[in-house]
Amino acid sequence: MAYLSNFIFSILLFSAIFYFRRNILFVKRNIQIGKSIDRTDQSSKRWSNMILIAFGQSKMINKPIAGLLHIVVYIGFVVINIELIEIILDGLLGTHRVFAPYMGKAYDFLIATFEVFAVMVLVSVVVFWLRRNTINIKRFWKSEMKGWPKRDADYILYFEMILMTLFLSMNATDLLLQQSGEPNYNEAGFFPVSQMITPLFSSFSLDTLVVLERTFWWLHISGIFIFLNYLYYSKHLHILLAFPNTYYQNLNSKGRFPN
Q1: What is the pTM of this model?
Q2: Are 47 and 78 in contact (CB under 8 A)?
Q3: Which of 27, 104, 178, 206 is the most exposed, fewest CB within 10 Å of its CB?
Q4: 185-to-82, 106, 213 alpha-carbon distances in Å
């Protein structure tokens, strides 16, 4: 029974990887239908484009509010998901915050950074939802934005709201368990945001807190695996494909084509 949760997590992890790989192979097959061309020249220019456009979201600067929110959400989501490495290792090995003993104060800094970005992402996503659903911004109410495009955008926003809330709730209950002296929850990490929501859980017993922390943990990682595989069906697949698309883009001047 001691290894049951590790076994269940392994099945969940490898199922997520299997379906993600299958979907990516579908995308690869469709790309390979096209004619093969060589776009490996000017590597420094290509790296620059990828960093500025895909990671830096530079094309959004003509819409200052939306651009800033996109940058916060995108970079925040990437930074926060660095912790997935630890979560996956904890799930496979049955450990808890496996990196904490080896990183010292650096671990505290990382967790604090993740939390700050999490609340920034959460606020940005709420603003996105309000702009899309309650404020009369003309481009969101055009006919081509109705139906699936609107639902898809809202699904992504709901996903991110839930994932960030689960992340902060997981840390809040973890912090309370650390402070209680629970043997499986050694003091590790600095929680500048989640410590403010600990009063929501402070009235629960230790046994209930353990259940809540594990529930938030499982829902958080399961939600990320579901989100990863949902991207294939969403217009937000560009979250992943923006990097190769910008690296291999056509660097010739516009309008130039072979005779």
Answers
A1: 0.85
A2: no
A3: 104
A4: 21, 19, 11
